Records
---
Amino acid sequence: MYTEVMTTQIAVRLDEQELAALDTEVIEGRAVSRSEAVRHGIAHLQRDQRYRGEDATLIELARRGELVYPELGGVLDLPHPTLD
């Protein structure tokens, strides 16, 4: 799965358990190769990093008392049926 972006090859030393984890991803069909399994792992890291950044932004907004979604500020004030 090569895209038309610049790539860099790196060497990584893995212990037996780490290598077995990569092989399991391939054997169980979640990746077509060890390289793809590594890229999937990196994609998870990138998502986690993005979420941490978003979390920090939300925490800062809450600390300042600002609405996260100002356009939804009055949603809870809309008329709604009573629940029995």
---
Amino acid sequence: MKRAKFLVPLLLALALSLAACTGNTEVTRVVTATPGPTPEPIVKEVVVTPTPPSVAPVPATASGPAIPQDKGYLVEEIGDGLYWVTEGAYQVMFLTTGEGVIAVDAPPSIGEKYLQAIAEVTDEPITHVIYSHSHADHIAAASMFPSNAVIIAQEETASQLERINDPNRSFPYGSFVGGSDVPMPTVTFSDRYTLEVGSQTLELEYRGINHEPGNIFIYAPEQKVLMLVDIIFPGWTPFEDLALAEDIPGYIEAHAQALSYDFETFIGGHLNRLGNRRDVEIQQEYILDMQANAAQALQTVDFFAIAQETGFGNPWLLFDTYLDAVAEECAKLTLPKWEERLGAADIWTVEHCFKLAESLRID
């Protein structure tokens, strides 16, 4: 396995829209961008007849509800005026309060369909917007909200977003995921913030770096709903490299932190399936299994045996070969238990193992 990373624009953008399946064909909405310093979004409908690759089948437990193809999104009430919306790849939630709508996040892949979903269930205006964190794929459509809406974010998120207007940026914020600059937060907080609007209450809490600095827990105590983005992927293995987590110990700890809340429904920000407490427990078990297997691989893969094969003349070749061997051994130990339990475990377990092994080595 080579560690060449193309974290990029087009691959991430391609993941923005999942397929709407009809028989043996898929109609996929692909968001890419024009080349150059000021990319423009390109949206195409691609019809393909997939050829089954040699990968493990996706378990039935990974599947969520079908997305109505006439609308291109699904909106459902979880309870007491709290709704979730998905187009198949991303998830958001909003609450009707009697005094206005509280909207959480604004993924470009959902875009104005988010506004349509809200209009389906209420004529209340959007008065408050919450940013879960600063990544463009989750909030770069926020400019569509009313300009007088109160925008709330953790202080670290606000700091990250200040870079949007940096004149030295090579490319505009959000341009590769179909989004654009977003309004800066008007209210920020450090550790905790309770938002009370009309009949609804949301508790926002920052418990340290996990996916990235500023990524918060968003809890609705009345409905017992917890939203935590880019950490837990109910029914699935996380996105590549533990969902690009910037702090691996913090990412692991976020599972226990999530379970400290009294919740019944979990919103993870991705794919078309809601979660529950058991989903969080299952992913925690998976991550801890991989961490233990990464530790075992670090103890058993023979660095000097690999050095005999590669020599010491090119140290990057030596370490690349060694660390890849560690990740492969970790995945070999992990997959027999998990390949049939989590969707795409066979795809990204090796990458997760690499991240966990590196964290064990240096964190």
---
Amino acid sequence: MDNEKKYEEVFAELEKLVEKIEDTERDLTSLRDDIAKALEMIKWCREHIRGNREEIEKLMEKWQ
């Protein structure tokens, strides 16, 4: 996942991908590929959130 992307951009892409995954007319191979991509995007989002949370906690410690 591109580290230069913003969380909001990746999350918006993920929402679109979820809509594609929910399409019952999909073939199995492309569905599998999209699920793999979605899981990668979810992992990136979680890591991004975790990193931001750690940075915020450090900032809060400085002010206490």
---
Amino acid sequence: MTTIPKRVPIPRNGVDYRGKIVLAPMVRSGELPSRLLALKYGADLVWGPETVDKSMIGTIKKINPITSTINFTRYPSNASRTQPVEQKESLIYRIHPTRERRKLIFQIGTSSPTFAVEAAKLVAADVAGIDVNAGCPKPFSTSGGMGAALLQTPDLLASILTALVKEVGAVYEIGISVKIRLLETPERTEALVRKLCDTGITGLTIHCRTTPMRPRERAIREQLRMIADICRETGVACLMNGDVKNKDEALELIQEYGVDGAMIASAAEANFSCFRTQAEGGLLPWREVVHEYVKTALEVNNKWGNTKYLLGQLVPGKAEVYRKVTSSKGYTEMCEILELQDLLDQAREVDERLGLGVNYKGAVKKAKTKNKSAQAAGGSMGKAMAHGNESKKPLSERGVTATTAKDMGGSYDVECQDPLMEQGISASSVLAV
């Protein structure tokens, strides 16, 4: 008699992760045009960039009639700075309700069941699932008790997932999942996975690296089968992440390790057509992918800074146009450099709408004039430093410990988000400006 595998029921508005090859959550590289392009080339599901709970709380949901997107925006809330009379709204998150329908998973950065639920409720009706980030190893995330720090507080992580399952998943009928890393020993990893699978989640993604490991270090896959077996016993779908280069390799790894699906991260950042199998034509030439990316970015009026960053990943560094593309000042100039003649008219319209193009250099010059750092570089160092010292409080008065100060001195890692909780702005939105 054949035993039917146990499965946690997939909610009516949710999606089963089994048999899926998906786009991993990535800051900058997980914004709307990237997700849409991944779907176009064959990704079954897409994860948005990690968004901190407090950055979502207080946002206003609006429909953009020009791009047909759902925008979650908010005004800056940094009380330590004098705000202008007319503040500009910050775009925190965007969703395309038709092109991403039943395909988008919202990943949240959190260390609080209460805040997690409050933030998740804002987007729950427009996504196919909520995923908790318990794997980001960077101080930006861990210093707030989020990301990989949650691996060291399993009871807290389990309480967050339980709260989301009961108060968001059950109410909006979507799945709740979690993304973790390997712990120091297989025994600790096993104990954590069993604990999390008992919370009612529908999916678990394992990044096959420990917290101290970096992307350049080879993924550890020896524990995959054990993790997959636990997930299967409890009826939870198991995805793997780490060094997955394309869809064909993902399908092979699924068979080899008995997992249910796989995430692709850096390989997608370099060429989104990695979601095509060899039978479907495999990787496309970079120029074709770039054309489709720019076309998609224009359709959704993507912030130029984010588009420019992605082009820096998609255009090979050895390409003759690379330097010109990465120093371009707007869509029109970039399209001319890449000879995307069919997109020029649309590029001019978007540049005008975003305030780029002709006025860009003037705006940059004006911003530099007001910038203290720029003034200092221009010979006003003493004046700028004196002004800064008058208003700057000691670290202790600002609630910054020596450890925190040291952590904050590092460079930004595009794979993880800086939880700018005090400002109420997600790093993904800041970096896209």
